[in-house]
C-alpha cells in the first residue's frame, strides 16, 4: 500500500475512534437472471477461449443496464477481462437497501455495490461491505497522489475503507449569462462575497417575469453547510460528539437563507405551494439567474443542442468571513462481503480506477476521480474560464463530516427543521435551531447506544 494512503487511513480512523462508532424480491433488471449461480456459489462457465468464466452481479442506482453507456462500459471492461461476465442490477437509490435485503433473502447473486456516504454507513454497519485495504495494498493504485480524495471519508467505516471513489461531484453556483446580460449585471467572480451575492440576486429578480435571482436547495450537507461554513458556523464538534448548529455562524446562515425568501424575495420559498405559485421556477426553464447545483449537472451540456437553451457559467460559492466552501462528495464501488467472486469483483473495481475506466466517465460528462484523466479529458467542451472554475471547486472544496456516524441521519433530522424555518416568514430561527441542536445531540447518543 502507498505510504501516503496508510496515513490517510490512520488519520480518518483516529477521528472515527474518537467519535465512537456503533453497529447499528424483484427480479434484477438487465440481462436474464444467471442460472449457474445462486446463494453462495460462484458463477462460472467456459469462455470462448476455453478458460473458466466468472459472472459477477453489480448493483447500482446510477448505471442503467439497458443503456448504451452500460453496454460501452461492459465492452471496455471485457477488452481487458474477457473471462468476467458483468450482470447489472439497477434500483432507485431510495430502494437500494430494500433491494439488497430482498436479493440476500432470495439468495440471489451479489458481488459489487455502488455506494455513497449514506449507503456506505448503512451497508458497512450491517457488515455488507468488504474491507478494501488488503486489496489496495497489493495494487498499483496511489490514492493520495493520483486521485481526488477530499471526500474519502464518505467511504470509510471504523477506520477501514469500504469503497473506492470512481467519480467526484463538487457543488457551486451556476448562473444564466443571458439573464445577467439582459439586466446589465456583471458576471460573478470567484472571489465575490456573500454581500455581493445578495445584491446580485436582488438585481436579477423580476416579479413581473416570474424571474428569481436564486433558488434554495433542501440539501443539508451539499447546500446549507457551504453557507454555514462560510459564515464561520459549525455543524458537529471536532470529534463528532456534539452538535453545534446553534453556533452564531450556523444560525446566521439559516437566517440569511430565510431572508432571501421573505425579506429580499429573491428566492422562491421551497414549499410545494410556493413552487406551484412560482410557476415552476427552475434553472433549465431560463427564469432562474443563479442556481446551486453540482458538477453532475454539467452532463448534457456537451450535446447538440445543449440541455440548456442559454449561455451559462459557474462561480465559486461566495465568500463569508471564513472563506468559500464548495462541497465535494463522491460515489464508489464496494465488494459485497459474502461474495463468492471477490477476486473478480476487485478486478471490476480496479478497472474503474484505471485510465480506461476513468475515460468512460470523462466521455459521458462525469467528473473522474483520477486527476490526470479528469484534467485532460473531463468537461473539454467548456470554455477555459468555466472549466478552470469547476476544477477549482474540487481543489478547494471540503467534504461533509461523513466520518461521523450521525451525519447521514442528521440530514433528515436537521432538514426537517430547515424546512420549518423556510416555510413561514414568522418562523423563529433561533428557537428552531435550538430544537434542532437538541435533536441532533439525542441522535448522536442514540447511535452511540446502538439505536
UniProtKB/TrEMBL annotation:
<keyword id="KW-0732">Signal</keyword>
<feature type="compositionally biased region" description="Low complexity">
    <location>
        <begin position="30"/>
        <end position="45"/>
    </location>
</feature>
<dbReference type="Pfam" id="PF01547">
    <property type="entry name" value="SBP_bac_1"/>
</dbReference>
<feature type="signal peptide">
    <location>
        <begin position="1"/>
        <end position="24"/>
    </location>
</feature>
<dbReference type="InterPro" id="IPR006059">
    <property type="entry name" value="SBP"/>
</dbReference>
<feature type="region of interest" description="Disordered">
    <location>
        <begin position="27"/>
        <end position="50"/>
    </location>
</feature>
<dbReference type="InterPro" id="IPR050490">
    <property type="entry name" value="Bact_solute-bd_prot1"/>
</dbReference>
<protein>
    <submittedName>
        <fullName>ABC transporter substrate-binding protein</fullName>
    </submittedName>
</protein>
Amino acid at each position: 500500500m502507498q505510504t501516503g494512503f496508510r496515513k490517510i487511513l490512520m488519520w480518518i480512523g483516529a477521528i472515527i475512534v474518537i467519535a465512537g462508532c456503533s453497529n447499528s424480491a424483484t427480479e434484477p433488471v438487465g440481462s436474464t437472471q444467471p442460472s449457474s449461480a445462486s446463494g453462495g456459489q460462484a458463477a462460472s462457465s467456459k469462455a470462448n477461449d476455453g478458460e473458466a468464466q466468472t459472472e459477477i452481479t453489480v448493483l447500482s442506482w446510477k448505471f442503467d443496464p439497458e443503456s448504451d453507456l452500460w453496454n460501452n462500459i461492459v465492452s471496455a471492461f471485457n477488452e481487458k477481462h474477457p473471462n468476467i461476465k458483468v450482470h447489472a442490477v439497477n434500483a432507485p437509490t431510495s430502494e437500494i437497501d430494500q433491494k439488497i435485503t430482498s436479493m440476500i433473502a432470495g439468495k440471489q447473486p451479489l458481488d459489487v455495490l455502488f455506494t455513497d456516504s449514506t449507503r456506505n454507513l448503512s451497508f458497512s454497519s450491517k457488515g455488507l461491505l468488504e474491507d478494501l485495504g488488503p486489496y489496495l495494498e497489493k495494487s498499483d493504485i496511489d490514492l493520495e497522489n493520483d486521485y481526488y480524495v477530499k471526500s474519502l471519508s464518505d467511504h470509510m467505516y471504523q477506520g477501514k475503507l469500504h469503497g473506492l471513489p470512481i467519480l467526484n461531484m463538487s457543488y457551486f453556483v451556476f448562473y444564466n449569462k443571458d439573464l445577467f446580460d439582459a439586466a446589465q449585471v456583471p458576471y460573478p467572480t470567484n472571489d465575490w462575497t456573500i454581500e455581493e451575492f445578495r445584491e446580485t440576486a436582488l438585481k436579477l429578480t423580476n416579479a413581473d417575469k416570474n424571474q428569481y435571482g436564486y433558488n434554495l436547495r433542501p440539501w443539508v450537507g451539499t447546500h446549507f453547510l457551504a453557507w454555514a461554513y462560510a459564515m464561520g458556523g459549525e455543524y458537529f464538534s471536532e470529534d463528532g460528539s456534539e452538535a453545534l448548529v446553534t453556533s452564531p455562524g450556523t444560525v446566521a446562515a439559516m437566517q440569511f437563507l430565510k431572508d432571501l425568501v421573505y425579506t429580499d424575495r429573491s428566492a422562491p420559498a421551497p414549499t410545494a405551494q410556493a413552487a406551484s405559485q412560482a410557476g415552476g421556477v427552475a434553472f433549465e426553464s431560463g427564469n432562474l439567474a443563479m442556481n446551486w447545483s453540482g458538477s453532475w449537472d454539467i452532463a448534457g451540456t456537451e450535446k447538440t443542442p445543449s440541455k440548456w437553451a442559454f449561455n451559462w457559467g459557474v462561480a465559486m460559492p461566495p465568500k463569508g468571513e471564513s472563506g468559500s466552501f464548495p462541497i465535494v462528495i463522491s460515489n464508489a464501488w464496494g465488494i459485497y462481503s459474502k461474495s463468492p467472486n471477490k477476486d473478480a469483483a476487485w478486478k471490476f473495481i480496479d478497472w474503474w480506477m484505471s485510465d480506461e475506466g476513468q475515460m468512460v466517465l470523462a466521455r459521458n460528462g462525469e467528473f473522474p476521480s483520477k486527476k490526470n484523466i479528469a484534467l485532460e479529458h473531463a468537461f473539454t467542451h467548456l470554455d477555459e474560464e468555466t472549466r478552470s472554475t469547476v476544477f477549482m471547486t474540487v481543489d478547494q472544496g471540503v467534504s461533509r463530516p461523513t466520518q461521523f456516524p450521525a451525519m447521514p441521519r442528521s440530514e433528515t433530522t436537521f432538514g426537517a427543521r430547515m424546512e420549518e424555518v423556510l416555510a413561514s416568514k414568522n418562523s423563529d430561527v433561533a428557537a428552531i435551531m435550538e430544537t434542532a441542536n437538541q435533536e441532533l445531540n439525542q441522535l448522536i447518543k442514540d447511535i452511540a447506544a446502538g439505536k
